[in-house]
Amino acid sequence: MKKKLKVLALFDAIAPTTLDQDLSTELKTEDWKTEANVLQALGELGHASEHLAIFDDLDLVRQKLQSFEPDLIFNLADQFKNNRAFDQNIASFLEMQGLPFTGCGSTGLTLCKHKGISKKILGYHRIHTPEFVTVSRGKRIARPKRLKFPILVKPLKEEASLGISQSSFVETDEQFKERAQFIHEKYDNDVIAEEYIEGRELYVSILGNHRLQVFPIRELVFKEVPPDEPKIATYKAKWDEEYRKRWGLQNRFAEGLDPDVVSLIEQVCKRIYRLLTIDGYARLDLRLTPGNEVYFIEANPNPILAADEDFAQSALKANLSYPQMIDRIVRLGLSTVRD
After folding, report:
1. DSSP string of 23-62, one letter each residue
2. Who's near 143: CB < 8 A, 6+ residues apart?
3. Strand ranges for the chain from DSSP E
4. Which site among 118, 151, 156, 307 is 20 to 30 Å from 181 CA-CA?
5. In what order do the strands lie in the sheet with 72-75?
């Protein structure tokens, strides 16, 4: 019989919170679906759980640790003061407390957040990545000759496809300049511009620290997008239901992949996971070319854990029920070595 644990579920909030704030209303909303799913699973597993939402005051965490004395923190806090760049700092803070927590540590979060650095590391290890350039704010915007059109121009450190739209797909130097400028100003973010890779958009979910389990592969399919149009996972393509319906966009399990190609994808993904020092769980976004070459697009440590999202759906397909998946994540958090 596995030992029942005291688990503190840590969330982020979009406004200041108090230590014993009642979040029951929020937990019934779509925005708090992941938090509600995780709390329910922890309850079903028999763990004693409490939760805390933080906005800009880490002292609340210290107070909660003293009063509740958890065995583990289930870390779902991926922003601080509404800034997603601070997810790695929250992990650093937890590491300094010396308390076990779920998901990825600060190093993995930092490497994956910076899309340029992650691609440089993987490129060095001969993993296919699109040819790219980064353009810092305040620097002159110019496309290096080696970068061939069409090009995708994206924020360097945003997640969930924020800042990616059909206008991100550029085919002239004029468009390149305009889009880079737009991202600098609107998102206050540096730019990564990378060659567009024609192919299938695959999402690979992985669970583990040392021994890794790769779950069945998901795919974003573009049913109604004309053959000559770019197929890109824009913000709307991921989150806008009306838009998804109009263009026939669906997240589903990848069909018709040759077993050898699946095996290649799994091996490449395990290497990427280890090279970027990811712990716990992650989702890797790839492009598979018509010639079956695997291209790394980006890594998402601590992806969304809601029961109806890609990660949990992939785990379920691998015969891991939602509570079992949450329990595995908890046990991995307990055994992660953080130093």
Report:
1. -TTGGGSGGGHHHHHHHHHHHHTT-EEEEEEESS-THHHH
2. 133, 151, 173, 176, 193
3. 6-12, 48-54, 72-75, 132-135, 151-155, 169-170, 191-195, 200-207, 213-214, 218-222, 249-253, 281-288, 294-301
4. 118
5. 48-54, 6-12, 72-75
Structure tokens at 244: 């998804």
DSSP-assigned states of every residue in 288-339: E-TT--EEEEEEEES----TTSHHHHHHHHTT--HHHHHHHHHHHHHH----
Give residue-wise pLDDT tens across range 245-285: 888 888 999 999 999 999 999 999 999 999 999 999 999 99
> Do the beta carbons of residue 224 and residue 188 sit within 8 Å?
no
One domain, residues 154 and 64: no
Dihedral over Cα of 88, 90, 92, 98: its sign: negative
CA distance linking residue 325 with residue 261, whole number of Å: 26
Here the contacts of 210-217 (C-beta below 8 Å, separation 24 or greater) are: 212/270, 212/273, 212/274, 213/318, 214/266, 214/269, 214/270, 215/311, 215/314, 215/315, 215/317, 215/318, 215/320, 216/253, 216/254, 216/314, 216/317, 216/318, 217/253, 217/254, 217/257, 217/262, 217/265, 217/314
The answer to whether residues 13 and 78 touch, using CB atoms and an 8 Å cutoff, is: no
CA distance 69 to 176: 52
User: Which token pair is 287?
Assistant: 């492009």
For residue 173, the 8-state DSSP code is H
What is the CATH number for 184?
3.30.1490
Instruction: For residue range 12-56, list pLDDT tens digits in order.
Output: 888 888 888 888 888 888 889 999 999 999 999 999 999 999 999
* Domain residue limits at 251: 198-335
Q: d(Cα 247, Cα 336) in Å, to the nearest integer?
A: 42
Residues 214 and 184 in one domain: no
- Determine the Cα–Cα distance for residues 250 and 133; give it in Å rounded to an integer: 30
Residue type, 64: K
Q: What's the predicted TM-score (pTM) here?
A: 0.93
